[in-house]
């Protein structure tokens, strides 16, 4: 069962009741990955659109910023160095990212 399937099962009471343990395991696998979740929030912050003159645009941007800032704050153990490393990784090509992962596994780099 994949993440989206687990969410769908969890939403239907009969399906969730019959497969409760499987749904919980799948959701845990999907969301219990601090580095992945952290990088997602960093990516979303970096992808923020430029604010236009419209009040709605500013309001939407601030709302999105707060959501992702709060997501980052939940990871109390994360440091500024880890944030910057995640930002740099977002700018890498897939090939370079693979090389980076090999390199960073041999030296002490905050990830």
Give the secondary structure arrangement, pairings included.
Layout: H1 3-11, H2 13-18, H3 20-31, H4 34-46, H5 55-73, H6 80-90, H7 94-104
Report on the structure:
With 111 residues, the chain is an all-alpha fold. It has two domains: 1-32, no CATH class; 34-104. It contains seven helices and no strands. The chain has helices at residues 3-11, 13-18, 20-31, 34-46, 55-73, 80-90, 94-104. Helix 4 packs across helix 6 (80-90). The longest helix has 19 residues, at 55-73. The model has no long low-confidence stretch (mean pLDDT 75).
Number of alpha- plus pi-helical segments: 7
What is the number of domains? 2
> Could you tell me the radius of gyration in angstroms?
18 Å
Which H/E pattern describes the elements?
Answer: HHHHHHH
How many strands, which pairing sense, and closed or not: the largest β-sheet? none
Whole-number mean pLDDT? 75
Distance between the first and last residues' Cα: 29 Å
Strand content: under 5%
Task: Summarize the entry for a quick read.
The protein has helices at 3-11, 13-18, 20-31, 34-46, 55-73, 80-90, 94-104. By secondary structure, the protein is mainly α.
């Amino acid at each position: 069962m994949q993440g989206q399937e687990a969410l769908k099962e969890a939403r239907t009471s009969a399906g969730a009741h019959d497969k409760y343990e499987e749904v919980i395991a799948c959701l845990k696998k999907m969301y219990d990955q601090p580095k992945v979740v952290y990088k997602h929030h960093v990516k979303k912050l970096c992808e923020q659109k430029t604010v236009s003159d419209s009040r709605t645009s500013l309001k939407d941007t601030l709302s999105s910023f707060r959501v992702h800032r709060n997501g980052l704050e939940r990871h109390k153990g994360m440091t500024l160095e880890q944030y910057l490393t995640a930002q740099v990784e977002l700018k890498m090509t897939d090939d370079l990212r693979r090389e980076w992962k090999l390199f960073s596994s041999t030296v002490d780099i905050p990830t």
